[in-house]
Design a protein that fits this description.
Layout: H1 22-31, E1 46-47, H2 59-66, H3 76-88, E2 93-97, H4 100-111, E3 117-120, H5 125-133, E4 137-140, H6 161-171, E5 179-182, H7 195-207, E6 212-215, H8 219-229, H9 238-247, E7 251-255, E8 266-270, H10 273-286, H11 297-309, H12 313-332, E9 345-349, H13 350-353, H14 363-375, E10 377-378, E11 380-382, H15 384-387, E12 389-390, E13 397-398, E14 404-408, H16 416-431, E15 439-443, E16 454-457
The protein binds pyridoxal-5'-phosphate.
Pyridoxal-5'-phosphate binds at residues 52, 99-101, 124, 126-127, 182, 186, 215, 217, 255, 257, 266.
Length: 459
C-alpha cells in the first residue's frame, strides 16, 4: 500500500462544480450575512462544510434503494437494517430516526431531567444543544492533550478518567441519567478514542450504575484508528473491533450520514427494554412509526448496505490517508493544524494562524470568510461562534479552549487534485493574513447560533 492509496473506486456519474468570480463571491458572502451556512451551493467551488450526508453512495446502495419496501409497518427494509445493526452493534433494540440529532432529542426527552448532567469526552454541538434544550448540563471531560494542537498523542479523543471519577463523585450518580463518549471526537478534531479508554469509561459508568451511550457517528473510522494504532488490534477486522466497542455500552446514537455512507438517516440503539418502550412512544409522536422513524423504506436499505461498506478495510485506509494527505500538505505550507489529523476532517488552529484577532472577534469565522473569498472553499467555524456560551450560574461568557476551523472531507466525493487546490487557497490566505479582520455578531438565536447567526466585518 502506498502512502496515498488511490481512490478504491472509479467515477460513474459526475456533478459539475465551478468557481464563480471573486466579486460574485464577495457579494454572495455579504448577502449571506457573512455566514457560509447562508450561501447557495452553486456559489461554492469546494464544499468542506461537513462530511455529514455529503458523500457519494455506491452502486450497491443505489440498487438497494430500488428494493426499498415502503410499507408503513414491518417493512422488509426495516428488517434488513435490523440485521445489519445487529451484526455490527449488537444492541437488543433500535429505532430509526431521520438523523443523529433526532436520536439525541428522543433520548434526552425520555431520559433527562432539568438540572441533570451528561458527561462525555466532548459533546458535538447538536448533542450539547439537545441536552441544554431539556435544561441539562453537558460536561466535557476529554484528556488535556486534546487541547495541545501539536501533541502527537494517538488517541486524543480519550476521556480523562480521573476527571470522570471526580466529576461523578462531585455531582452524584443520581444526577447523571446517562454518560456518553463521542467516537471519533468531532468537536475536538475528529480524534479517536482507544479501546482501553472505552473499556475504562464503561467500567466507571457501570460501577455507578450510569448507562453508557456512545455517540457512534464515526465508529468505523474510530475502529480503524484502533486497528492502526492500538496494540493487540492489528490483526482484527474493523467489524470485530466495532463489535467489541459496542459490547461495552448500553446504547448508541448514530447519524448514518457519516460512517453509514448515506445522505440522510440515523438511529438510536439500546439494551434497556423499558427505555426502548418510552423511546418508541416518543418516536411515534415526533418521527414516525418504530419501523421507519421518519425515513423512507429505501433509506433504510441504503443505510443497511452503507454500514457494511463503511467497515471495508480498503475504503477505510483510503479514507484516513486522504485526510492525512490534506493535513500533511497544509502543514508543509506552514498552516497550523491539529495533529495528528483526525479521521474525517482537518482542523486548522485559527487562533494561531490569526493571533491578531482575539476570541470575542471570532478568528475562526474570519478565516472561514477569507477561504471563501479567496477560492470559493467552504469550511466551518468550530470555535467561539459555535461553542462560546454564557455560564448558567454567573452569566459570564465561557470561551472554548481552541478557535478551530474544520475542513470536513465528504466521503468518496473529492479527488486529490481538489485537495491540492484547497492547499493553494490556504497559501494565498496565509500570505495576506495581516489584512484579515474579525467579526461582530449582529443576530443570533438562543441555541446553536453558528447555523443562522449574522455578522458584520470589523474594521
Ligand atoms: C459527533 C456528532 N454527533 C452528532 C451529530 C448529529 O448528527 P446529524 O447531523 O445527523 O443530526 C453529528 C453531526 O455532525 C456529529 O458529528
Amino acid at each position: 500500500m502506498t502512502n496515498h492509496p488511490p481512490e478504491p473506486f472509479r467515477i460513474k456519474m459526475v456533478e459539475p462544480i465551478s468557481l464563480i468570480d471573486r466579486e460574485e463571491r464577495e457579494q454572495a458572502l455579504r448577502e449571506a450575512g457573512y455566514n457560509v451556512f447562508g450561501l447557495k451551493s452553486n456559489q461554492i467551488f469546494i464544499d468542506l462544510l461537513t462530511d455529514s450526508g455529503t458523500g457519494a453512495m455506491s452502486q450497491e446502495q443505489w440498487a438497494g434503494m430500488m428494493k426499498g419496501d415502503e410499507s408503513y409497518a414491518g417493512a422488509r427494509s426495516y428488517h434488513r437494517l435490523a440485521a445489519a445493526i445487529d451484526e455490527i452493534f449488537g444492541f437488543d433494540y433500535f429505532v430509526p430516526t431521520h438523523q443523529g440529532r433526532a436520536a439525541e432529542n428522543i433520548l434526552c426527552a425520555v431520559a433527562l431531567q432539568k438540572g441533570q448532567y451528561v458527561p462525555s469526552n466532548m459533546h458535538f454541538d447538536t448533542t450539547e444543544g439537545n441536552i441544554r434544550a431539556r435544561g441539562g448540563r453537558p460536561t466535557n471531560l476529554v484528556i488535556q492533550e486534546a487541547f495541545k494542537g501539536a501533541d502527537p498523542h494517538p488517541f486524543k479523543g480519550n476521556m480523562d478518567l480521573e476527571k470522570l471519577q471526580d466529576f461523578i463523585k462531585e455531582i452524584g450518580p443520581k444526577q447523571i441519567p446517562f454518560g456518553m463518549i463521542t467516537i471519533t471526537n468531532n468537536a475536538g478534531g475528529g480524534q479517536p478514542v482507544s479501546m482501553e479508554n472505552l473499556r475504562q469509561v464503561a467500567s466507571i459508568y457501570h460501577e455507578h450504575e450510569i448507562p453508557f451511550i456512545i455517540d457512534a457517528c464515526r465508529f468505523a473510522e474510530n475502529a480503524f484508528f484502533i486497528k492502526l494504532r492500538e496494540e493487540g488490534y492489528e490483526d482484527k477486522s474493523p467489524l470485530e473491533i466495532a463489535r467489541e466497542i459496542f459490547s461495552l455500552a448500553d446504547g448508541a446514537t448514530m447519524s448514518a450520514k457519516k460512517d453509514a455512507l448515506v445522505n440522510i438517516g440515523g438511529f438510536l440503539a439500546l439494551n434497556d427494554k423499558k427505555l426502548y418502550q418510552r423511546v418508541s412512544n416518543e418516536l411515534i409522536l415526533r418521527e414516525g412509526f418504530i419501523t421507519y422513524g421518519g425515513l423512507a423504506g429505501r433509506d433504510l436499505d441504503a443505510i443497511a448496505i452503507g454500514l457494511r461498506e463503511g467497515l471495508n478495510e480498503e475504503y477505510l485506509m483510503y479514507r484516513l490517508k486522504q485526510t492525512a494527505y490534506l493535513a500533511g500538505e497544509l502543514k508543509s505550507a506552514g498552516i497550523p493544524i491539529l495533529e495528528p489529523p483526525g479521521g474525517h476532517a482537518v482542523y486548522i488552529d485559527a487562533g494561531k494562524l490569526l493571533p491578531h484577532i482575539p476570541q470575542p472577534k471570532f478568528p475562526g469565522q474570519a478565516l472561514v470568510a477569507a477561504l471563501y473569498i479567496e477560492g470559493g472553499v467552504r469550511g466551518v467555524e468550530l470555535g467561539s461562534v459555535a461553542f462560546a456560551h454564557p455560564d448558567p450560574d454567573t452569566g459570564e461568557m465561557v470561551y472554548p479552549e481552541m478557535e478551530l476551523v474544520r475542513l470536513a472531507i465528504p466521503r468518496r466525493s473529492y479527488t486529490q487534485s481538489h485537495l491540492d487546490y484547497v492547499v493553494d487557497v490556504f497559501k494565498k490566505v496565509a500570505q495576506g493574513k495581516k489584512e484579515i479582520s474579525g467579526f461582530k455578531i449582529t443576530y443570533q438565536p438562543e441555541l446553536m447560533r453558528h447555523f443562522t447567526a449574522q455578522f458584520k466585518p470589523l474594521p
